[in-house]
Amino acid sequence: MADEITNIEIQISHREGNIELSGPKRLKRTVQSYSVKAVSAVLAGAMVLGGAGAAFADNSSTGASVAAATPQTAATASGIFSDVKTGFWAEKHIYKLATQGIVVGNNGLFRPGDSVTQQEAVLMALRFMKLQGNVNTSNEVALPNDFVVTNYYKPYVILAFQQGLLDKTTEMAADNLKSSWGERKASREWVAELLIRALGQSASASAAASRPTGFADDAKVSANKRGYINTAVELGLANGLTGNRFDPQGAVTRAQLATFFSRAEGHNTLEYDNTFKGTVSSLKDGKLGLYSNGSTLEFTLNANTAYFTSTSENRISLNEIQPYTKVTVIGATYSAAYVELTDPAVQVEQAEGVFTKLTPGIIWVDSANGYDQYPYDAGTAFLDVNGTVIQPASITAGSKLTLLRETFTGSRKVVKVQVTSGIVNKTAKGTVQSVDTAAKSIAFKNADGTVETFKWEEGTTLFSSQSSIIQPAELKAGAAVSYTIKDNTIRSVEVTSGVERVVKGFIYELTDSTIVYQKSDGTREVNLLAATPAIVIPNAVSPVIGDLIADKTGGDNVQLTLNSSDQVIKVEVLSRQIEQYAAATVVDYNTKTQYLTFTDNNGKAHVVKMDEKTKMSYGGLITTSLTTMGSRLVENRKIDVTSINERAMSVELTTKYSGTLTAINTSARTIVFKLGNGQLLTMSYPQAIEMFGKSGAVITDVPLNVPVTAVLASNQELISVLRVNGSSQFEIATINAGTNKMTVKLEGGSNSSELNLVNVPLTNEAGQKIALTELKAGDFVNLGFDGSTPLSLQSVKQVAGQVTAVDAAAGTFTVKDYTGASQPFTAGSGVRILRDGVTTNALSGLTTADRVLARKDASGVMIISVFSQLNRTFARYESATNEILTKRATLNDNYKFGLAPNVYIHQGDTTLPVQSLKENDNIIMYFNNGKVVEIVKQ
Known about the structure:
Elements: E1 9-14, E2 17-22, E3 33-34, H1 41-45, E4 56-58, E5 65-67, H2 91-99, H3 118-128, E6 141-142, H4 154-162, H5 168-171, H6 188-198, H7 202-207, H8 226-234, H9 254-264, E7 275-284, E8 287-292, E9 295-300, E10 306-309, E11 326-330, E12 338-343, E13 348-359, E14 362-367, E15 370-375, E16 381-383, E17 400-406, E18 414-421, E19 426-436, E20 441-446, E21 451-456, E22 463-465, E23 468-469, E24 480-486, E25 489-497, E26 501-510, E27 514-518, E28 524-536, E29 557-562, E30 568-575, E31 579-589, E32 595-599, E33 605-609, E34 615-618, E35 621-623, H10 626-630, E36 638-644, E37 647-653, E38 656-665, E39 670-675, E40 680-684, E41 689-690, E42 707-712, E43 719-736, E44 741-745, E45 752-756, E46 762-763, E47 780-786, E48 789-795, E49 799-807, E50 812-817, E51 822-826, E52 831-835, E53 838-840, E54 851-856, E55 862-866, E56 868-878, E57 883-886, E58 896-907, E59 910-911, E60 922-928, E61 931-937
Parallel strand pairs: 10-12, 16-18, 21-25, 22-25, 28-30, 34-37, 41-43, 46-48, 52-55, 58-61
Antiparallel strand pairs: 1-2, 3-6, 4-5, 7-8, 7-11, 8-9, 11-12, 13-14, 13-17, 14-15, 17-18, 19-20, 19-24, 20-21, 22-23, 24-25, 26-27, 26-29, 27-28, 29-30, 31-32, 31-36, 32-33, 34-35, 36-37, 38-39, 38-42, 39-40, 42-43, 43-44, 43-47, 44-45, 47-48, 49-50, 49-54, 50-51, 52-53, 54-55, 56-57, 56-60, ...
InterPro entries: SLH_dom
Keywords: Membrane, Transmembrane, Transmembrane helix
Pfam families: SLH (PF00395)
């Protein structure tokens, strides 16, 4: 049954005959009719770009429309699309149109990479033109059999013809009716025409129709679309693709279409729903006041509010939007979902003068023009010379003021009064920005970000932390403080929440849990030791707390690093006040007087007195008995002595020497090594060499200037074993957490060595303890060892992803890892780039197209392994073997590729499951250790 369609001036021709639709006349020939029942405003509002035609389907013989099982949801102030990540290239445009209700998502997803059908694009164009309310869904509408459109979209397509959005000659052409018109993917050139028609710029397109587009693939552009493409490019609505291509027949994605229409908003004068333009009148406490069209609106800001500028595609922070700047705010029920900074210029004017007096609601200022009166209210901000908020009554007479008055409402209200010169008296909280001990000044940063600087006077005790007095130089930037200012001068500073700070002194007393140190001014402080403080002693390998020397007059001079709880997390020995003698020779020990006489390596005699406080040991055993130790101090015995003046701090029978190998004399068969105290010692070749990962090592295998430990034979004259100390980086081959064992690959990767890690401390790069189960095969570790015995194991941080920035001059680069986080690196100790078996040593060899695995070796050199890549055509995925198969160009091509466990598959910034890859998809694969770690769908 035919019905009439009014206000249509088109001729429709199809295989059943001519159909003339002109004004209110009835159809001259009956065509198949479709019944479209009324659709509620809620469902209509949820339909735009909600997905393919499955959102509504005709599943009855009568053609009744029914809602799909999956509801469509529009973005609101609290709605964020989980698949549109921060930094996504079209993020700004998607959220802008979503908050205006022009585009919507589905179950919290936007699916930015999905293609858009022609019928969906038409509906979006009508919403962009604010014409969707003109559609008539209550009457039956008719279209030719060959012009197939999903039932829900039919009245919108009819409206599009009525409004000149669609050209019937083009759309009804025979070649255009061979498949479903509505469900056909919208091409880039077709969308360009739709966009320009929606803007009413068809005349401009006609004028530009004869000009080539200037794109490399201009020959592929349909002749009747060239003018529309030219106009879209000239208006800045559409851009070319890589290689100066337009790809006219390429499918348009949901992200692209949102971008096109978002940019087009700048070329029309329509006012969109929930969209407000004006000037920020206030911005505080999670609220944004907007002065718009003569009134002030208030919007709530929350964690999901998106902030952008009109001149950039990238997000900005709320801090970059200042009061009295121009913005566009989009959001329903006065909850801002989208805020766009349109003009960063502050809409204020400035006045200056000298403060005279204050009366209710009026501030009196003496200026060059006489006494001026400025009204103020509760919204006016009063600030002191450092930008700190003050009460109006605290301003002293004679203070110089700067007043800011807004210029956007016409009332020229005073919005801020700034004291530029005056007396400051206050107590405030903030953080230490910097300390200048020469100028005796501290810069404080307040909670609002304002920095203010004040000086202190010499000779007053101002500074404290955890109830202990500290010096100004001990204040660290970033420490939270409470400070009092009187007459512009610092009167007190109390550290309320510190950061790491350092102090210096000598160790006065030392226990397992505390350290007492004496400062240069003679005062002493006591601090708790952290659980595992780092100990640094020059020329000492893996020192421990027991290696530190405490004494009331001659303890180690140290620098202590304290954490925010004032616990000692690091002890670094700067110098020692003691005397140390290694491999000294006993001359005599007197059991009555307890005097020990010995000669050093230069034959010089020394005398020290031993007592019950002297640390004594022999053969690895510790004794407290002077009698037991004295019986072993016989003539010519080798001993290690530590003393302060004539007092013996420690006496130990020499069992080993620790130092650095400095020379090897192959003819004399002797070696020379430098002890920790700088003493040179010459001894015969060792009886055995112990090196990690090398069996049967000889002395010439040991490189010079490496730390070594010489274990002495029982006669103390010969070296039984020379252990080579050091650290190297290895790749883990296997791990057995049950037995606390690990094998690591040795040089060349063909051999491995097993490690027993039962008593070995395991840490990450930050020095935090880790478990063996946190490591896996393929990870790298820095191993510290004494001979073949591991002493420490530290995991090495590795970052895999795409290089996004390279500054070869500055020695820096950035990698966007496979979680989407940007990781900056500095190649301060050098760089090695491994690409296809070739090693280079310059960052200029990296490009932003490279996928890499970056880590530092044991010496701090940056190691960058560039992943190899292959461009292939996808065939299928084998779930049983976790492999993908690709199509082969020749019979010899490798076509099976194993996937890494966490392979990153994506198209643009949209992450894809492997099952979404379709046959004949063009893909780029990136490989690490023979496994595919990334797949880019083209």
